[in-house]
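Q: What does the assembly look like in three dimensions?
Context provided by user:
Components: two
Sequences:
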Amino acid sequence: MAEAISTPAVVVDIDVAARNIGRFQAYADAHGLRVRPHIKTHKLPAVAEMQLSAGAIGITCQKISEAEAMAAGSAAIRDVLLTYNIVGDDKLAALRALAGRIKVSVVADNAIVVDGLSAAFASAEPLTVLVECNVGADRCGVGAPEEALALARRIAAAPGLVFGGLMTYPPAGGVAKTEAFMAAAKRLIESAGMPVACVSSGGTPDMMRAHEAPTTTEYRPGTYAYNDRSLVARGACGWEDCALVVLTTVVSTPAPNRAIVDAGSKILTSDLLGLSGYGHVLGRPDLAVDQLSEEHGRVVASGPTRLQVGDRLRIVPNHACVVSNMVDAVHVVRSGAAPALWRVAARGKVE
Amino acid sequence: MAEAISTPAVVVDIDVAARNIGRFQAYADAHGLRVRPHIKTHKLPAVAEMQLSAGAIGITCQKISEAEAMAAGSAAIRDVLLTYNIVGDDKLAALRALAGRIKVSVVADNAIVVDGLSAAFASAEPLTVLVECNVGADRCGVGAPEEALALARRIAAAPGLVFGGLMTYPPAGGVAKTEAFMAAAKRLIESAGMPVACVSSGGTPDMMRAHEAPTTTEYRPGTYAYNDRSLVARGACGWEDCALVVLTTVVSTPAPNRAIVDAGSKILTSDLLGLSGYGHVLGRPDLAVDQLSEEHGRVVASGPTRLQVGDRLRIVPNHACVVSNMVDAVHVVRSGAAPALWRVAARGKVE
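A: Here is the predicted structure of the complete assembly.
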């Protein structure tokens, strides 16, 4: 069937994705963890439905515009956590409109954001707000449990808002740090008389160790649905667990040890995630994708590549999530069914 | 007007783009060089029209799908060079259809591609094919003037094809190499009785030195229309010549020396082009964009950032071309006119 696909193209093996989704759900169920997958990886309402059917309690989005697209694409998507500080009158109006249609909760890591949310929701149904905590990734998040308490108090006191708990996006390998911060923050906040209904953590690399941070009640894996080269490199999965590949055609063999394929940064992206090279050619561990331009990928080998113009290769990208965002549609394959083209409903939601 | 734009967003100052386009056209006119701009940078039919009005003889595209979108978007676009090896029956059929509507020429660097083009065009109006030459970038291209001669002979002898000349995309700093290769190849081919109607070179970094490779008859600059941080770093332009910026909002100030903006890799991309960091914050040379996630950009300073949640920043990206591809539309500003939203017609043409 791959012969009928015009390259370069993103091909998703939905059976592999279903297996990945089921595996983590079983783990979470065994440990009493709620699952709220981050849809940034696939941006497909149909895959979110698979995750919800498997047992997820809702989904995670990073943007209102992505949540809008997901909710519009599936009647099953009715509970979204936006793990982002919402700033600006335009965004707050969109958030209020979305919250009128489905259950939405958000996070905040500073008083300006809390006050903006409160002003927008003072005359609406109350909005649940979690405090984002920085346990070591040094992106967003309050830096200490005492700050989490102060912000929780501000949320609880703010008209239109309900304090919903704690949220973090830990660095890879940050399980112990997550537990130390979240347990201390939860204790402080509960001592102050506020229940901490939810402690939400995330990240695919350490998802199978989530139980080592037992304060966590909810987990938000994203990449786990597809996996990618970065996760194989971390030992989190094997190549057979990678559901998403970029199908590409050799267009030039200018030297014995060099071939050019039609997959460049416009589909593989320049994300390295600490790796060397831009993807793994399935079945050809001797090849490296050492350089990308927008429409060219350079494939090199220490010896002859043995590639011919017209050959097709399947490349596992370094980072699956960003690849989903590059295409308007993905080719979905599964056993026993005809291949299908699925529109990436939440692609390109920039604003 | 920027206050009305929802962030993150791409903002293009079309007056600056017009000045950039005019400056290179004047240089090319003074040196008798034809200009065929690469539209990958803007992907906007209206900017291609500005380039044609300034004096360009046609445009360059990397993909048939981009050429289709550009031709559909402007009646002025009637001459396209596709600087890509076209491989596969689907692509060849699309190429033939396009060649029935506008003037199209292509390149080839190997016999398989030439034979495919010949089979597709044997019963159509003849297709002009240039030989792509590798003068040092080590991407596509024949590796020696003798190979260029052999491929020129094959094109000239192939039913449905016309040999149109030579094309290269040189490495930065490769002006002398370009001249050496192209002059030798042209001499060889002309000695064999075949006229070399066009010698096409490209690349913005060295465009103002194009006359130092006098065999060149046509130049294909791309990024020059917008410029970017990589070109400022090379000394090719100043910040005031950068027509494209990413407008972004500060959403978090979790530490005195760290702020988070809502522009991540989904709009700035991970392209580094040899630089450190992911963009230049206009007016704030003390800040660095040191880390991107998909929806977060981390802005750091050695001292306090003095940024507040809600502040807006304008970031010149490392690479303008890839940023154009990330958004469905750009906000166009110009003096004396209302801001406008222009749809990026040739965005996301992956296949």
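Follow-up: Chain A is about 30% helix and 25% strand.
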